[in-house]
Amino acid sequence: MATNEEIDPAQVFEANLISLNKTMDEFTARGDSAVQQFYSGTTVFVTGGSGFLGKQLVEKLFRATKVAKIFVLLRPKKGKQMLERLQDMLKDPVFDILKNTQPDFVDKLVPIAGDVADMKLGISDKDWDTITEETEIIMHMAATTRFDEPLKVAALINVRGAREALLLGKACKKLKSYVHVSTAYAHACDFRINGDVLEDFYKSPMDPEALIKLAETTDEERLNSISDNLIKNWPNTYSFAKAVAEETVKTLGADMPLCVVRPAIVVPAKREPVPGWVDISNVYGASGTMAGSGLGLMHALFTDNETRVGLIPVDYVNNTTITAAYETTKRVAAGDNSIKVYTITGSTRNPVRWGTLHEYISTENRKYVTPSAVFYGFAWQTTNPIIFWIYSWLLHLIPAYVIDAVCLVIGKERRFVKIYKKMYKLQVVLSYFTCFQWRFIDDNTAQLFDSLSEADKAIFEFDVKKIDWKEYM
C-alpha cells in the first residue's frame, strides 16, 4: 500500500485534469464533426514537424482526425537515415497515447529529407514531385526561434524558407489550404508598446527579396555589423525576420487559399495530449523557465509585475491552426479570397499579470509540489538589469557553483552553472516581451472558435477565456 510520502500531488492533480478530457474524447471517437470530415482522407505536409509546435500538431492530427498521410520535413543528420530521424522524433512522450490507441499511425507518417534554410526546402526532385501531386494541406511551422540568431541565419530560414514553402504550395495541384505560422510579436515593435497590434498585415520593415539577397551575398560577420541598423524598432532578428516574412506571404500568397496564425509565447500544453507536456528541446525557452519555477529551480525573474502575460499553451496554438486551415478552405469556396490573420494569445480576453503568476508560483505550487522538485517555488522579480544580475548570482549561480563543486568531488557531471548561465541569457533576451506589453486584437480567432460546432469546440479547444491560469500554473 502506498504511503503518503510516495504519493506525488502533482501527478494526482494531473490525473484529475486528464479526466476532464472525457468529453473531448467522446466527440473525437464519433469522427463526424465538420473539421474531422474536412481532414478525413487528406494528405498534409508539415514543416517544423520535429519541433515543439510541430510534434504536438502531428500527434493531434492523427489522434483527432482520419488524415490519410502526413509528410513531415526532417533535416538530415550526419550518419542517420531518414527513418532513424523519424524514430528519434517518435520517442517523444507526446506520442505515447497515440502509440497505444493507434499504433499504425507511423505507417501514415512519411519523412521527407530537406532543410528549410535551403532552396526548394532542400527537397529532392523526386520528393518534390510526390508532394506536389498528393498534398492538399500545408502547415508551414518551421522557423528559427532564437532571438539572438545572426541575421543571416534568421533571414535564410524565416524569410527565404517562407518563400520556398509558398512556392511549394503554389506547385501543389490539389492544394485546399495553406497555413503560415508567424508570431504575435512580428509587429510588436517599440513604437507600438502599450498600443494595439491588429490582425492585419503591416508595412514590412524591409523588402523581403532585398533581405534575402543580402543574406545570400553578405558574409555573416559583415551582416552582423549592420544588423542593429537594419532591425531598428524590432527587438531582435527573430521578430524582424518574421515581420518581413509576412510581406512575402501577403504578396506571393495572394492567389492561394491561405491564412496566417500568430501565436504569442508558446508554453506547455494545457491538456493535450497530457497536461503540462513540453518538448525537451524547448527547455531553454519560456517553457523551461516555467518548468524550472515549478521545480523550485528558478527564483530570479526578469519581468514587470504589472505587465500582462503573453503566453499561450501549445495545444491551443495547434487547435487554432487545424481549424484555421478548415475555415480557410470553407471561406475561399464561398468566394472570400482574402488572407485572414488569426492571433492566439491569452493576454487580451483572459489577461493575467506577471505579478499574479509569481504569486501562484510562490503559493499554489506548494500545494502540488512534486517529489522531483528541488525546492519550494518562490520568485524575486525585477525590471532592472543590474538587480536581475545580482539576483541571478545570489539565487542561481553561487548555489550552482557549490553544487557543481560537489559533483566534481563525487565524480558526477557538472552542469548546473552551464544551465543557469543559459537561463540567465534567455531571460535577458525575453525581457522585451516580459517587461513591455501590447494589446493583441484577436477578433478573428474568437470568431473562428464561435463559428465551430459544439463537437469541434470540444475536440479543438482554444477558447482562451476558459484558461484558469492558477490551475494551469
UniProtKB/TrEMBL annotation:
* Classification via InterPro entries: FAR (IPR026055), FAR_C (IPR033640), FAR_NAD-bd (IPR013120), NAD(P)-bd_dom_sf (IPR036291)
UniProt keyword list: Lipid biosynthesis, Lipid metabolism, Membrane, NADP, Oxidoreductase, Transmembrane, Transmembrane helix
Q: Which GO terms describe its molecular function?
A: alcohol-forming long-chain fatty acyl-CoA reductase activity; alcohol-forming very long-chain fatty acyl-CoA reductase activity
Q: Which residue intervals define the domain Thioester reductase (TE) in the entry?
A: 46-320
GO CC, alphabetical: membrane; peroxisome
Q: What are the BP-aspect GO terms?
A: long-chain fatty-acyl-CoA metabolic process
Q: Which Pfam families match?
A: NAD_binding_4, Sterile
Reaction catalysis annotation = a long-chain fatty acyl-CoA + 2 NADPH + 2 H(+) = a long-chain primary fatty alcohol + 2 NADP(+) + CoA
UniProt function note: Catalyzes the reduction of fatty acyl-CoA to fatty alcohols.
By sequence similarity, the record places it as follows: Belongs to the fatty acyl-CoA reductase family.
PANTHER family, per this entry?
FATTY ACYL-COA REDUCTASE-RELATED (PTHR11011:SF60), MALE STERILITY PROTEIN 2-RELATED (PTHR11011)
Please report the name of this protein according to its UniProt entry. Fatty acyl-CoA reductase
Organism expressing this protein natively: Heliothis virescens (Tobacco budworm moth)
What is the organism lineage in this UniProt record? Eukaryota, Metazoa, Ecdysozoa, Arthropoda, Hexapoda
